[in-house]
Specification:
The complex is a heterodimer. By secondary structure, chain A is mainly α. Helix content of chain A is 79%, strand content 0%. The chains are: A mainly alpha, B alpha/beta.
C-alpha cells in the first residue's frame, strides 16, 4: 500500500472511537448512537420540510433550480468558513503532527492524508445539510436513478474546492505569521469568530426568512436577493457546474457537467498539493512550540503558597482553570452558557417588531404567572442541557484520567466538584439571560426571582444526567481536545434529552395552563425528586462506576 | 511496607497481565521492580496505587487493606507515574498547590517544602509558567516535587529516572536513599539495570505477569552460581522457554 493510503487509513482509524467491548457495553453504545441520531431528526426534518415547501411554487415558474444553487453554494460557504479553523487544527495543531514530521514522508503525503480525513468529516456535516436537501429535491422532482447517481457524486465532490481554498489560506497563514506560537489564543479567537459567524448567519437567515410565506421567499430569491448564494457561487465558481449537472434532464448532459466539476475539483487538489510542497513543512515544523517567556514568581505569589484549600475547592479550582484555559473546552463548556442573552438580543433586533412587541406584552403580564414560570422551567432544562460541561466531565480528562484515581480523594468528592462547576456555569448563564429578559421585555421582578429559584433545580437535572452519561460512556481516547467535546455523543444525547424535557414543559404550560399553580408545583416537585434520585445514585454508585473505567 | 498477596489481573478476561503475584517490599529498603516490556510492572504499580482494581488477591500498604481503606492507603503513597504529561494548562505553582490541597498539607509546611524542593530541582524560574511549556524532564521534576509535598511513607515510582538530567537524577537517587534510610518504603520500576544494581537493596523480577525472582542482588548471584552482571542474569531469567 502506498504511504499516502497507509497514512490516511491510520489517521482515519485513530479518529474513530470503537464501540465498547462486551455485549452489554456495546448495547449501551448502540442505544446512545440511536438517541443521537433521533435527536438530529428535527433538524433534518425541518430542512426537508423547508425544501418541500419551496419546491412547488418555484417549480410552477420553472425556478426550482434556485434551491439546488442556494443549497450547494451555502454548503460550500459553510465548509470554507469553518474549514479554515478545522484545517489549522488538523494540519498543524493535532498531536500526531509531531510524530509524523520525523517519518520519511513527503509533505504531499501528510497533506494528502490529512486533507482526506478532513474531507471525510465534512461529509458528516453535509449529511445534515446537503443530503436532506438533495433527497427532498429528488423526491419532489420525481428524479430517476441517474439523477441520484449524479447527486451522490456531487455530494462527494462538493466539499473539495472549498476545503482546498481553506487549506491554501491556512497554509499561507501558518507559514507567514506567528499564529503557531500562540496556539491557545488563536483557538479562542477562532472559536469566537466561528460563533459570531454562526450567529451572524442565523441573524441574516432570520432577517430574510422571518414571517414570510413560501411565495414571498420565492419572489425574493427570483429578485436576486440571495446574496449568500451569490457569494458562494462567486467564491467557488466551479459549484455552478455541479448545479448544472443536477439540473439537466438527461444523464448524458448531467454527466458532462459533473465531469467538468470533477476535473475542476481534481485540478484544485493538484494545486493545493503543489502549494503544500512549498508551504506545509514551513508552518508545521515548530507547530508544537509554545510561547512562554520564563516567569519566576512574585513575592505575593510565593506568599500565597502557604494558603490551603479543602480538596473539593481545590478540585473545583482545577476544573475551572482547565475549562477556561483549554480553547475547545472554553468554547463548548463555558462560552456556550453565555450566548443565550446574545442570541436573544440578536433575535430581538432581527425579528418582526410587531411580534417582539407582542412577546413583550405577554411576558410583562399578558401571560399568567404560572404559565410563565413553567416556560422558564422548560427553558432552564433546555439551556442547561446545551452546555457540555457535565456531559464531558470525565471525557475531558482523556489519558490523564488515571490521575483522579490515585489521588486520595473519595470518588464522591470528585463527582461533587464536577457537578458544582457545571451547575455554577449553567446558573450564571441563566442569571444573565433572565436579567436580559427582565430588562428587554419588562418582566416583573417577582416572576423573575421566582423563575430563578425554580430554575436552580431545573438546571441541575441535565447536569446530573450529563455526568451519569459521561461516566458510563467516557471518551477518554482522543488526540485533540476538540474530539473530547465536539465528537462526544454524550453532549448530543444530553441536548436531545433536555430538549425533550424543555419542550414537554412548554407544551404543558401552553396546553394545560388552566391547571394553574398545581401544575407548576407538580413539575417543580418532580424535578426536585429527579434531582434527589440522580444525586443519590451518583453518591451511592459513583465510586463503583468510576472504578470500572479502565485508565 | 507494601504487601501483595496472590494478586491477579487480566484484561478483557483473556490477557493475564499479573499472575498470582505475591511480593513484600519491607520498610527501610529500596526495591527495584524489573521486567521486560509488557511483563506486568506498570499494571502492578497501577493496582497498588488504586488506578486499577485487582481481579483477586490482597494489597496492603503499611498494614492497611487497599480495598477496604482506599483513601488511607492513597494518603500513604507518593506516586510518580511513567508519563508526567498532566494538567498541562496549570502553571507549575498551581499544580503544586493543587497537590498540597489534595493531600491536605498544612499551610506553613507546604510553603517551606515547596520553596525547598523548587530550589533543589532548580525550578524557581519557571514556576509561574504553564506546565505545557516545560520540557519532558521539567515536567518529570514538577510531578516529583508534587509527590514530595506530603512527605509520603511509601514511594511508588514508575520509571522515575526517564528524562531527568544527570543532576536531577542524582538528586532523586539521593532522596530515595535518604527516605529509605529513614525507614520509608521505596518501590520503583526501571529498565535501567545499572541503576537497579547500584541503588537497590533488593530486586523483584517479573515476566509475563509471574514473579521470577525476589531477593537481594547477592542472592541472585548465588542463584546463578556465577559472578555475572545483573544484565546477563536478567536476560537469562527472562528468556522464553
Amino acid at each position: 500500500m502506498s504511504r499516502f493510503l497507509t497514512l490516511t487509513w491510520i489517521l482515519l482509524k485513530s479518529s474513530y472511537t470503537p464501540l465498547a467491548s462486551g455485549r452489554f457495553a456495546r448495547g449501551k453504545s448502540v442505544a446512545l448512537l440511536v438517541l443521537v441520531c433521533v435527536s438530529l431528526l428535527p433538524l433534518i426534518g425541518g430542512l426537508a420540510m423547508l425544501v418541500g415547501n419551496l419546491y412547488t411554487p418555484l417549480a410552477a415558474v420553472g425556478q426550482q433550480g434556485i434551491i439546488l444553487a442556494f443549497g450547494c453554494a451555502l454548503t460550500g460557504l459553510l465548509i470554507f468558513i469553518f474549514g479554515i479553523f478545522y484545517v489549522i487544527n488538523t494540519y498543524y495543531f493535532a498531536q500526531d503532527v509531531e510524530f509524523l514530521l520525523p517519518l520519511p514522508l513527503r509533505p504531499g503525503q501528510i497533506l494528502g492524508a490529512k486533507f482526506t480525513v478532513t474531507l471525510f468529516f465534512e461529509y458528516l456535516t453535509q449529511l445534515l445539510i446537503l443530503a436532506p436537501l438533495l433527497v427532498t429535491y429528488g423526491i419532489k422532482s420525481g428524479a430517476g436513478l441517474s439523477w441520484y447517481l449524479i447527486a451522490a457524486a456531487v455530494f462527494l465532490s462538493l466539499p473539495v474546492i472549498p476545503l482546498v481554498l481553506a487549506s491554501l489560506l491556512a497554509m499561507v497563514l501558518m507559514s507567514y505569521s506567528s499564529v503557531a506560537r500562540h496556539k491557545d489564543r488563536f483557538r479562542i479567537w477562532a472559536g469566537g469568530f466561528g460563533l459570531a459567524a454562526a450567529l451572524g448567519l442565523q441573524y441574516l437567515m432570520q432577517k430574510v426568512m422571518v414571517n414570510k410565506k413560501p411565495e414571498e421567499i420565492v419572489r425574493m430569491l427570483q429578485e436576486g436577493k440571495n446574496s449568500l448564494a451569490d457569494l458562494g457561487m462567486r467564491l467557488f465558481p466551479g459549484v455552478k457546474f455541479a448545479v448544472y449537472g443536477l439540473l439537466q434532464s438527461g444523464p448524458a448532459a448531467g454527466g458532462l457537467y459533473l465531469l467538468i466539476f470533477l476535473l475542476l475539483s481534481a485540478l484544485a487538489v493538484l494545486m493545493m498539493m503543489a502549494a503544500g510542497r512549498a508551504l506545509y513543512f514551513r508552518g508545521a515544523i515548530g507547530g508544537s512550540e509554545i510561547f512562554a517567556p520564563r516567569r519566576a514568581l512574585t513575592g505575593a505569589e510565593l506568599a500565597e503558597t502557604g494558603r490551603s484549600n479543602r480538596p473539593l475547592r481545590a478540585l473545583m479550582l482545577k476544573e475551572i482553570r482547565l475549562l477556561v484555559r483549554t480553547p475547545a473546552f472554553f468554547m463548548n463548556c463555558v462560552l456556550i452558557n453565555f450566548i443565550w442573552p446574545v442570541m436573544l438580543l440578536f433575535m430581538g433586533s432581527s425579528g418582526d417588531p410587531k411580534e417582539i412587541e407582542g412577546l413583550r406584552t405577554l411576558l410583562s403580564g399578558g401571560l399568567p404567572a404560572n404559565t410563565l414560570l413553567l416556560i422558564m422551567l422548560g427553558a432552564s432544562f433546555f439551556i442547561s442541557g446545551t452546555s457540555g460541561a457535565s456531559a464531558s466531565g470525565i471525557s475531558r480528562e482523556g489519558s490523564q484520567f488515571f490521575v483522579s484515581k490515585y489521588l486520595p480523594v473519595p470518588a464522591t468528592v470528585l463527582i461533587q466538584a464536577k457537578l458544582a462547576v457545571a451547575w455554577l456555569l449553567s446558573c450564571t448563564g441563566l442569571l444573565l439571560l433572565l436579567a436580559t429578559v427582565g430588562i428587554a421585555f419588562h418582566m416583573p421582578a417577582a416572576i423573575l426571582g421566582a423563575g430563578m429559584l425554580l430554575a436552580l433545580p431545573a438546571m441541575l437535572l441535565p447536569v446530573l444526567a450529563g455526568l451519569i452519561l459521561d461516566i458510563h460512556f467516557p471518551k477518554l481516547v482522543w488526540d485533540n481536545e476538540y474530539r473530547a467535546v465536539k465528537q462526544n455523543m454524550n453532549i448530543m444525547a444530553l441536548m436531545a434529552i433536555s430538549g425533550l424535557l424543555g419542550a414537554g414543559c412548554i407544551w404543558l404550560a401552553l396546553k394545560h395552563g388552566s391547571l394553574g399553580w398545581t401544575l407548576v408545583a407538580a413539575v417543580a416537585g418532580l424535578t426536585l425528586l429527579a434531582d434527589g434520585v440522580l444525586y443519590a445514585l451518583l453518591q451511592k454508585k459513583g465510586t463503583a462506576w468510576l472504578a470500572a473505567i479502565q485508565a | 511496607m507494601i504487601e501483595l498477596l496472590h494478586v491477579n489481573k487480566s484484561y478483557n478476561g483473556q490477557v493475564k497481565a499479573v499472575d498470582d503475584l505475591t511480593l513484600t517490599v519491607p520498610p527501610g529498603q529500596i526495591v527495584g521492580f524489573l521486567g521486560p516490556n509488557g511483563a506486568g510492572k506498570t499494571t502492578t504499580l497501577k493496582m497498588l496505587t488504586g488506578i486499577l482494581q485487582a481481579d483477586s488477591g490482597e494489597i496492603r500498604v503499611n498494614g492497611i487493606d487497599l480495598r477496604r481503606e482506599t483513601i488511607r492507603v492513597k494518603e500513604q503513597i507518593g506516586f510518580i507515574p511513567d508519563s508526567p504529561d498532566m494538567f498541562l494548562r496549570l502553571s507549575g505553582l498551581e499544580y503544586l498547590r493543587f497537590m498540597a490541597d489534595i493531600y491536605q498539607v498544612p499551610g506553613p509546611e507546604r510553603k517551606q517544602r515547596i520553596e525547598n524542593h523548587v530550589a533543589q530541582f532548580e525550578m524557581g524560574e519557571v514556576l509561574g509558567n504553564k506546565i505545557q511549556s516545560y520540557s519532558h524532564g521539567m515536567r518529570q521534576k514538577i510531578v516529583l516535587i508534587g509527590a514530595l509535598l506530603h512527605d509520603p511513607a511509601v514511594w511508588v515510582l514508575d520509571e522515575p529516572l526517564t528524562g531527568l538530567d544527570p543532576r536531577s537524577s542524582f538528586l532523586l537517587k539521593e532522596i530515595l536513599r535518604k527516605e529509605a534510610g529513614q525507614g520509608k518504603t521505596v518501590f520503583f520500576s526501571t529498565h535501567v539495570l545499572d541503576v537497579a544494581e547500584r541503588l537497590c537493596d533488593c530486586v523483584a523480577i517479573i515476566h509475563k505477569g509471574r514473579l521470577l525472582f525476589d531477593g537481594t542482588i547477592a542472592e541472585m548471584r548465588d542463584h546463578f552460581k556465577a559472578n555475572e552482571s545483573l544484565e546477563k542474569m536478567f536476560l537469562e531469567m527472562t528468556e522464553d522457554e
